[in-house]
Design goal:
The chain is of the alpha/beta class and 143 residues long. It is built from 5 helices and 5 strands, in the order αβαβαβαββα.
């Protein structure tokens, strides 16, 4: 009888944790869909004209809503977009909604940041780095 109670309690606990996790993910998705950051929302359709053909250095964050580290990096990208407004293009590309560009640039792990200058990828960052390290890479390309 005690074992049956523990089994039922474990099942309920598992369901509660799953429901809470689901709600957290849904709320994060809502947050990121309604953000009013100054980053550019890159897509398969606008990538060439807005990133590759840009006369500015561009940083592109390849991300997805289900990616925990991507969610951690999101506020940093927002801050960078504010810091570099008018000096560099800071963009985010959702890999689930825009698989063509992600495939073209061989993105297999997210978050991945690509830095472009004169239409060419000149640097890549895999994973989450502090803002100052990302800024340093952008600054080196702007000068």
């Amino acid at each position: 009888m005690v074992l049956d109670f523990l089994k039922v309690s474990g099942d309920i606990f598992s369901r509660v944790i799953s429901a809470i996790t689901y709600e957290i993910i849904i709320n994060l998705n809502r947050y990121y869909k309604t953000m009013s950051g100054k980053y550019f929302a890159a897509t398969d359709q606008n990538f060439r004209t807005e990133i590759v053909e840009s006369d500015k250095v561009a940083l592109v964050d390849f991300w997805a809503t289900w990616c925990g580290p991507c969610m951690m990096l999101g506020p940093v990208i927002d801050e960078l977009a504010n810091d570099y407004e008018g000096k560099a293009v800071i963009a985010k590309l959702n890999v689930d909604e825009n698989p063509g560009i992600a495939a073209k640039y061989g993105i297999r792990s997210i978050p991945s940041l690509l830095l472009f200058k004169n239409g060419q990828v000149v640097d890549q960052i895999l994973g989450v780095l502090p803002k100052n390290q990302i800024s340093k890479k952008i600054d080196e390309l702007i000068v």
